[in-house]
Design goal:
Layout: E1 5-8, H1 12-22, E2 30-33, H2 44-59, E3 63-72, E4 79-80, H3 83-98, E5 106-116, E6 125-135, E7 150-152, H4 164-170, H5 172-186
Parallel strand pairs: 1-2, 1-3
Antiparallel strand pairs: 3-4, 3-5, 5-6, 6-7
Helix pairs in contact: 1-5
Length: 190
């Protein structure tokens, strides 16, 4: 019997999206674990690689970690992987105000899932997804990070204003998770 795959997160909203996108028919057990991992610094790939290695060392089995970036084009990609700390300190309204000095309010939401089979010698595999959008004055519920100030291109609502099932169909997280899911189903012959 295959070991469960551990999805490492303490974010209930992220877990809910993850499980909705993976679907009830996913043939392998996935368990959520909240771990106190170090806050790694660097670019997105370095952060995900280090988080996944640390998680595998703790759970002693297959692990998935996720990292999300929100990259303002006017700021050459910042706040990027540090968006969590910006949201915690200034909220979605503060993110919008950060761009007051720039005409360009465009942004890219990027999600990376990192997966490792669970042994120290196993590679960490990365699965990326991105969505282009605009940073707007917050609209909708402010219950999930920066969703209230990110409006995907071609849509007249912010992530926060969209029904969950619609957001899950178009989001950066969905795009990355679909790639991971495809890998797990195909390459691991699940």
């Amino acid at each position: 019997m295959a070991k469960p795959i551990f999805f490492i997160t303490g974010n209930a909203n992220k877990l809910e999206e993850f499980m909705a996108i993976m679907g009830k028919d996913f043939p392998r057990e996935i368990q959520c674990r909240k771990l106190d991992l170090p806050e790694f610094q660097g670019d997105m790939a370095d952060i995900c690689n280090n988080k996944c290695r640390a998680a595998v060392n703790i759970v002693k089995g297959p692990a998935i970690v996720e990292d999300t970036c929100l990259c303002f084009n006017a700021m050459k990609g910042l706040p990027g992987p540090y968006i969590k700390w910006f949201v915690d300190k200034i909220g979605p309204g503060g993110l919008y105000r950060m761009l007051q000095g720039w005409e360009d309010k465009s942004a890219e939401a990027i999600c990376t899932f990192a997966y490792c089979d669970g042994r120290p010698e196993d590679p960490v595999l990365m699965f990326h997804g991105s969505t282009q959008g605009t940073i707007v004055s917050p609209r909708g519920p402010r219950i999930f990070g920066w969703d209230a100030c990110f409006q995907p291109l071609g849509i007249d609502k912010t992530y926060a204003e969209l029904p969950k099932n619609m957001k899950n169909q178009i989001s950066h997280r969905n795009k990355a998770l679909e790639k991971l899911k495809c890998y797990l189903l195909k390459d691991l012959q699940l």
